[in-house]
Amino acid sequence: MSTTSAELQLEKISRFIGGIMRGRDPDLADHLQRLDAKTAEFGRYIGLSETESSLLGIGGGIHDIGKLCINEQVLNKPSRLTSAEFFFIKQHPMAGYQLLAPLELDTRVTDCVLHHHENFDGSGYPHGLAGENIPLFARIVRIWDSYDAITMNRPYHKGRSSEEALAILEKDKALYDPALLDSFTSMMRLSPSI
Ligand SMILES: [Fe+2]
């Protein structure tokens, strides 16, 4: 498989963003790095082309770039957020999208940044999109983002096991694309390695 110069350029941008995120928050950078690798692997698992899978990985790897624009104390607050703090955190998808706008990246990548907190039942943000109105790549990142947040260790949160995380996703299944959640569950049962 040959890599086009556009793909190479995107990979460089992604690595550059990864370096900035690591300087700001190593745990968040690790989360993004895992999503980069795992969403690309998932793309291949569900039969996307190699190009689409690597674009998906890049979207997964930079989806939270907008957190650079959010106050660090609010972002990492261990206790319950006030409604004003939650309002600020909810700005990060749009902030990231605007940050990337001058680069004119492939929209499938920027969809991951703008729409990764949209819920399948329409209850998410920033636009309250529902069902297949949410771009495919963003629906995929939505699932991996939740799973990784549940399983990762943070100073104030001990990571749960893969099986526990799958049970939590199943309980909240209204938030996720059902067909993608099925594929995700079967992939994780084959290799719960993340
Ligand atoms: Fe996010």
UniProtKB/TrEMBL annotation:
EC number: 3.1.4.-
Pfam entry (one): HD_5
Designated name of the protein: HD-GYP domain-containing protein
InterPro entries per the UniProt record, alphabetical: HD/PDEase_dom, HD_GYP_dom
Alphabetical UniProt keywords: Hydrolase
Domain of life: Bacteria
Keyword Hydrolase: yes
Signal peptide: none
SUPFAM superfamilies with a match to the protein in the record: HD-domain/PDEase-like (SSF109604)
Boundaries of every HD-GYP domain copy: 6-194
GO molecular function, one term: hydrolase activity
